[in-house]
Structure formats: structure tokens, C-alpha cells
Design brief:
Elements (H helix, E strand, L loop, with lengths): L4 E6 L5 H11 L2 E5 L3 E6 L1 H10 L5 E10 L3 H9 L12 E9 L6 H20 L4 E2 L6 E8 L2 E7 L21 H10 L7 E4 L6 H11 L20 H12 L9 E5 L2 H13 L6 E5 L13 E5 L12 H15 L3 E7 L14 E7 L2 E10 L3 H8 L1
Parallel strand pairs: 5-6, 5-7, 9-10, 9-12, 10-11, 12-13
Antiparallel strand pairs: 1-3, 1-4, 2-3, 4-8, 7-8, 13-15, 14-15
Helix pairs in contact: 2-7, 3-4, 5-6
Length: about 375
């Protein structure tokens, strides 16, 4: 038990329940939901596992000190009292980022600067050396969170946001964030037990995340680096053991994952990204206009898509476009659970179908809805009953 410590996984608004479930399934202890975060307890191996295996986490933080702050001196003195030499060499490099909700500390950059000063001063007073500042590839990334009178200093175990999986080199105009895509697919109940489609697949993010969920492939296998790999206590053997244990839990997938896009450049980008992710054996991408297609076969289809919006809608008639979505689903896609996410809440009424579910989510800062339309066999079913 002595090797266990508290960690905090940050996520998007509305994804707290899914992240808590993911953590519990991975084996985390003392899982507690917050707002845009879930705290939990585990050891160093679990810290590696959480970074590699969580689909809906943006960052994993390791809090090392929490204290009350009323004045600047409180921040400086408390930060300076931390044994930074346990985490960093005096000739190493560091970066600090801060989030603040406080009457005195109103600027996050200034708060980060004061924190850095305290750390550097401690090293300088001890042996005359001081760590460098490296915002891109620091040996230690430190997170400062001040909420009213409480300040928490954490080590950032992840580094770059965990939505950067490492498979995406090509993107379209408004690519969907990988964490958002994974969360939406999980909210939709996709379990890999049917065919899956994204009829407006853009750069292929939803397709890649769906395939990884279906096969239980850890989402961050392709990452170039996690922040903890630069730490003093980095254990490469333990990391490889954890990686191997996660890979043993992958599973077979016996259905199809299909992507359509009417833009040839989007299809090219999506294919490139899917190939980078080594998922091309599971995913088939075609150059198709969804509004001119029909569902192949009678088996169940699970659909998740992010229709164009905002800057991608410049030359589109919203009423006509969303009307076409409804018409295509109604006439071409029986026995389909269709989920779409949009920040254009007004546009949803033009679809002309009654949603069976509506979930509030955020796409970046845009309030959005994840909406489900259940398309039944319809007239075919009625015809059978009449016969």
C-alpha cells in the first residue's frame, strides 16, 4: 500500500462517468468523480497503465502538495519548501503551467512564473546551479491549480495532451478531438458487436477510435513519449511489462467498420491516418456522398458521425443539408442506430426525425448535442404483419 498515491485524470465536461468507469475497469482504487476530472489511487505501474490505456483522459496529474494561499508569499514559500531535488537534477529542465480561480492570482502566466522562481531559487541556494526552462520538452512538467484559497501542485505525468494519440498526421479543416471521438462512441454504447459506420468521416478519427474500442487496443500505444519517461524514477522494464499486459487484453473483431466522405482529399487523409494507426485491416473507407447511399445488407448497423458545422458550412444550406440527413436515414438505413453530434442545435429540427436520446456535450468550447435516431425496419415490418 505504501507505493500507492493519489492521481487526477482530467477530461472533457460530461465525460466524468465514462472516465470513472474506464478507471474502475483498469483496476484503479478510490475512484471519485469531480468536474472535468476523476481522482483515483494507484502505484507507478498503474500511472503508466492509465496514460496508455485510458480513452477519455486528457492528462494524468500526480499531486505532490496542497496548501492554502491568500498572498503571493504563500505560493512562493510553499513551492520552495518542496524537495524538488527528489524529482529533478539541478542541471535539468522544467516547465510550469497554471490554472487559477482566485482574487489575488488572476493571471495564470504570472502564477506559473512565481512558481518557477521558487523552484529555481531553491536549487540555486542549494548548489549554485539552476534548472533551465524548456516549454517544449522539459524533464519535469509541473501543474499549479489554484481554486479560491486552495493551491495544488502536481507533476504532469502525461506531457502533451493524451488526445494526441500519435496516429494522425493528416487532418481536415475541423478535425474532431480523439478524446471527444472516443467518449462519444462509448456514450453511444458501441461494443464492437455489429457493423459500424461514419458516413462523413473527415480525417478518420471516429473510425480509428471505434476500431480501437472494438478490438480493445490501448489508445496511446503510438505516442512518441509520455512526460514520466524523463523522470528520475523512470522504469522502462515496468513500462514494457504494463504495455505487454494491456496488449494481451486485445480481442478479435468480426464485423465491418466503414467510412464515407464525399471529399476526395478527406478520403485520402483518412486512409493515411488509419494506415498510420495500423488499423487498415478493420476499416474500409470509400469516396461516397452519404445522401446517395443505402445500407448494404439487413444486419444491425451502428452509426456515429460529426456533420460539418461552422467554418465547414460556408457554402451549405443548413436546412437542406440536415433535411437530407433525415431523409437518407429514413429511406436508406433501416435497422440502424444513428448517433450524430452537432453544435448547431437549431439545425437538428430540420432532420425531421424524433430523437430517442439527447446528451449535452462540449466540442471544444461549443455546447453540442449527441443525438440518437433509431431507424427500424419500418414499412417492411408492417408489411410482414399485414401478410
Amino acid at each position: 500500500m505504501d507505493n500507492n498515491f493519489k492521481m487526477v485524470a482530467k477530461t472533457l465536461f460530461g465525460f466524468e462517468d465514462i472516465l470513472a468507469k474506464e478507471l474502475t475497469q483498469l483496476g484503479a482504487m478510490q475512484v471519485e468523480k469531480g468536474v472535468r476530472n476523476v481522482s483515483f489511487v494507484g502505484d507507478k505501474g498503474f500511472m503508466y497503465k492509465a496514460n496508455m490505456g485510458l480513452r477519455t483522459a486528457i492528462k494524468i496529474l500526480k499531486p505532490i502538495k496542497s496548501f492554502r494561499v491568500a498572498r503571493e508569499e504563500d505560493l512562493y514559500n510553499n513551492v520552495k519548501s518542496i524537495k524538488w531535488e527528489d524529482y529533478l537534477k539541478s542541471d535539468g529542465s522544467l516547465a510550469v503551467d497554471a490554472t487559477v480561480h482566485h482574487s489575488v492570482f488572476t493571471h495564470s502566466k504570472y502564477t506559473a512564473l512565481k512558481t518557477k522562481d521558487a523552484i529555481v531559487d531553491r536549487f540555486r541556494e542549494q548548489d549554485g546551479n539552476r534548472p533551465n526552462i524548456d516549454l517544449r520538452f522539459p524533464d519535469l512538467k509541473i501543474n499549479v491549480h489554484i481554486d479560491r484559497q486552495r493551491c495544488t501542485i502536481s507533476l504532469d505525468t502525461s506531457g502533451e495532451s493524451l488526445h494526441r494519440r500519435g496516429y494522425k498526421t493528416a487532418t481536415n479543416i475541423a478535425p474532431i478531438n480523439e478524446v471527444l471521438a472516443a467518449g462519444l462512441i462509448m456514450m453511444s454504447g458501441w461494443d464492437g458487436q455489429s457493423d459500424f459506420m461514419d458516413p462523413m468521416c473527415g480525417s478518420g478519427t471516429i473510425l480509428a477510435e471505434a476500431a480501437m474500442i472494438a478490438c480493445n487496443i490501448p489508445p496511446n500505444l503510438m505516442r512518441k513519449e509520455f512526460a514520466f519517461e524523463r523522470w528520475e524514477d523512470w522504469d522502462v522494464d515496468l513500462f514494457e511489462k504494463i504495455e505487454e499486459s494491456l496488449l494481451k487484453k486485445t480481442r478479435d473483431f468480426h464485423h465491418k467498420i466503414i467510412g464515407y466522405d464525399k471529399s476526395p482529399s478527406a478520403v485520402k487523409k483518412a486512409k493515411e491516418n488509419i494506415k498510420n494507426a495500423h488499423l487498415d485491416e478493420f476499416i474500409h473507407i470509400q469516396h461516397e456522398d452519404f445522401f446517395k447511399t443505402q445500407k448494404a445488407g439487413s444486419s444491425k448497423l451502428h452509426m456515429v458521425f460529426n456533420p460539418p458545422y461552422g467554418e465547414r458550412l460556408e457554402n451549405l444550406n443548413i436546412e437542406e443539408f440536415y433535411g437530407n440527413i433525415g431523409t437518407t436515414l429514413k429511406h436508406g438505413y433501416p435497422n440502424t442506430d444513428a448517433w450524430l453530434v452537432t453544435s448547431n442545435l437549431e439545425a437538428l429540427k430540420y432532420i425531421g426525425l424524433r430523437p430517442s436520446r439527447k446528451i449535452k456535450v462540449f466540442n471544444a468550447k461549443l455546447e453540442s448535442r449527441l443525438v440518437k435516431y433509431e431507424m427500424y425496419e419500418g414499412s417492411r415490418k408492417a408489411k410482414k404483419q399485414n401478410d
